[in-house]
Specification:
With 323 residues, this protein is α/β, with parallel strands linked by helices. The protein is built from 11 helices and 15 strands. The strands form 3 sheets. Strands 3, 4, 5, 6, 7, 14 and 15 form a 7-stranded mixed β-sheet that branches. It binds NADP nicotinamide-adenine-dinucleotide phosphate.
């Protein structure tokens, strides 16, 4: 089959590889669309290696048509339209995946939209609910609010009647986040002390923090957390090492600081996460109450352009590759 491979200068090039074997409880998907993730841009440079035993082809999520069933797989039929969370292997004509990690694609969504749901919404769902235990009417701060995961987090948090505060790097991004349901938008390029700005806007602090930035925001994050706050670290785009940490603040505020990467979790964990998400939120894609935010779509041959677009921080929501 055709797949996108990485050459020794980190360029993405088309190549031929064997089709994946289908395990007993797996399905094979004929890939129609692929979601691009920041992890792909790191993996191609050798900065985010795939977990042991996983294909070294890039690609953490696809939408497509079921074209083969493992001997013990029961959930889908040949021809079903699905979207799936992968640990790798998505930048290809075919991918095999544990059937529990695939979800039926709502009828109203075309493949290009379906490929933009799994990573963004499952990551946001995991952070807000199983990890942060978000409660009604709490205050949530989402950094990189216009990112793929950020736009999903805004939509999910809004369902809990929360006040959502976002940071982002342009007016266009902030306006988009406000249209999605954020109440306060802060441009960190003009207002680097977002913690002071949040207080100026009438909030004592935030209960839940979805943090993709890490070190460069650490002190300000610590300052703005409310007592009993839950701070979920999902990425370290602003660096991984901080100055001295005053542990007293964690103690006095009774903070919970948690980190997580979805990709490295077991299939059991992911399948439970998907079951919870499917029960609470998947039907809302069918009714249009939740929407994958798609920034742009590129043909697979233009995968390099798609990566450049993400690496230059220009996207609002997801970038999709069409096969
Ligand atoms: N832990 C997990 O399980 C998990 C799962 C999925 C994704 N992630 C991570 O979550 C992050 C968001 O993913 P995504 O695919 O949604 O990203 P994305 O759509 O590519 O958006 C990332 C945005 O972050 C902002 N940004 C970049 N560098 C920054 C910095 N140093 N300080 C502040 N903001 C910065 C930029 O927007 P502005 O213009 O606003 O600066 C950029 O457009 C990525 O780092 C990704 O690797 C983690």
């Amino acid at each position: 089959m055709q797949a996108i491979l990485v050459d020794d200068k980190y360029k993405l090039i088309p190549g031929n590889v064997d089709e994946p074997d289908v395990g007993a409880t797996e399905i094979k998907i004929r890939v129609k669309a692929i979601g691009v993730n920041r992890a792909d841009t790191l993996q191609k440079k050798g900065l985010y290696p795939p977990p042991t035993g996983v294909s070294d082809i890039l690609g953490l999520e696809v939408a497509g048509e079921v074209c083969e069933l493992g001997i013990n797989s029961k959930r889908f039929q040949i021809g079903d339209r699905v979207f799936a969370l992968l640990a790798g292997g998505g930048y290809a004509e075919y991918v095999a995946v544990d059937e529990r990690l695939a979800m039926p694609l709502p009828e109203n969504l075309e493949y290009g939209k379906g490929a933009g749901i799994a990573e963004a919404f499952l990551t946001a769902y995991q952070a807000l609910f199983p990890l942060a235990d978000l409660k009604k009417e709490e205050t949530v701060l989402v950094h990189a609010g216009a990112s793929g995961v950020g736009t999903a987090a805004i939509q999910l948090a809004k369902r809990m009647e929360t006040d959502i505060i976002v940071t982002a790097g342009s007016k266009e991004k902030l306006d988009f986040c406000m249209d999605l349901g954020a109440k306060v938008g802060i441009n960190y390029k003009f207002t680097p002390h977002f913690d002071e700005e949040i207080r100026t806007r009438g909030y004592d602090g935030v209960d839940v923090l979805i943090d993709f930035v890490g070190a460069s925001y650490f002190d300000k994050n610590m300052s703005i957390m409310n007592p009993d706050g839950r701070w979920i670290i999902l990425a370290l785009m602003g660096g991984r090492k901080t100055n001295e940490i005053n542990l007293g603040k964690i103690l006095i505020k009774r903070l919970k600081i948690m980190g997580s990467t979805l990709r490295a979790r077991s299939n059991e964990y992911k399948s439970e996460l998907i079951a919870g998400f499917s029960e609470s939120f998947l039907p809302l894609f069918g009714t249009g109450e939740l929407k994958p935010v798609i920034d742009s779509t590129y043909p697979l041959e233009e995968v390099e352009k798609a990566h450049e677009h993400m690496e230059s921080n220009r996207n609002i929501g997801k970038i999709i590759l069409k096969v």
